[in-house]
Amino acid sequence: MIKREHPIYIFKYSCLDSIPSIMGIVLFLFHVFLIYYFNERAIFFSLILGCIYSVILAWNINVGVHNFTHLPYFKKNILNRIYSVIQSINVGFSVAYFKYSHREHHSGNNDKVNAAGNTKDPLSFYKYSKNGNPENPLKYALYSFFRSDVSKIWSGVILRLIKCNRQRDEIHQYLSRNKKDEANFVDFESLCIIIFLLCCAVYNWKALIFYMPFYIIGYSLNSLTNYYEHLNANSEIPMAWGVSSYNKLYNWLWLNNGYHAEHHYRPKMHWTKLKALHEEISEQQKRAGVHVISVCHPLGFLAKENKKSKM
């Protein structure tokens, strides 16, 4: 059971969930701003805004959407639905679908390839590695968009819309058979994304094409974060399933995302409680060999702790 401490107004667990909630709305408005004023800006400023957009998108997937899929922010389901639609438009795929697909990540915990040549975790950096070692981080990040849930989601939606019973995606199959309301909501979110993109294309298709590479970069930055959240973790020990960073600035800006070993150990714990959990189990973590880096996860390639582990 999750203990709800001082829920305020519309929020279910903490008023601090207003931060990712507001940021989700800000990102939506930022999308509109990027497209609407594209012709009025110099290309140089559009490039700068594109870089900012990539970082905000990566933050939003890794923090705003990720935390929401574990513990919805609002008391009323209708508000969670509205927020889910807004965030789906922001990230370009159904958040309702992501809620179920993300469970596979926590089920596998970046596991290694099994005898059948598969991994439980679709995000595992061992999945496409041929030598049993972690995949090159740059390749993992840049290829992530084309290997990700995005293609699964959209192929599943298209197959459902044309009433095709041979669905290639197990999650779509599960939702269609057991949670029809959720399956319909996945389709609804996908339809909202299509409508939004069509509106953007009609208004200024050049702007849409211009910012598409920045979207992919943002997605890649999110994947790079995931890579270093698990590099040198131990998929065999629950307490060491993730890699943590206790950098104060990082955890302040990324809403305690640095406490990733703690998150994988207690995935249903609210993000505001992860620091307290760490303080409670820190000695056990040391005995379990939890890997800790001194820099934020997106900059994990600079971590001296990762370089030492290779020696």
Protein traits:
2 strands, 311 residues, 1% strand, two-stranded parallel sheet, mainly alpha, single chain, 12 helices
Count of alpha/pi helices = 12
Shape: globular
| Separation, N- and C-terminal Cα atoms | 43 Å
**Major sheet: order of its strands?**
1-2
| Biggest sheet architecture | 2 strands, parallel
- Mean residue pLDDT: 89
Using the CA coordinates, give the radius of gyration: 20 Å
The helix/strand order is HHHHHHHHEHHHEH
Strand element count: 2
Estimated structural class: mainly alpha
Helix content: 55-70%
Strand content: under 5%
Q: Identify low-pLDDT runs.
A: none
Write a brief structural summary.
The protein is an all-alpha fold and 311 residues long. It has helices spanning 18-36, 43-70, 77-91, 95-108, 137-147, 149-161, 170-178, 180-228, 248-253, 260-265, 274-288, 304-309; strands at 244-245, 292-293.
How is this structure best described in words?
61% of the residues lie in helices and 1% in strands. By secondary structure, it is an all-alpha fold. A two-stranded parallel ribbon has the order 1-2. The longest helix is centred in the middle third of the chain and has 49 residues, at 180-228. It is globular and about 55 Å long.
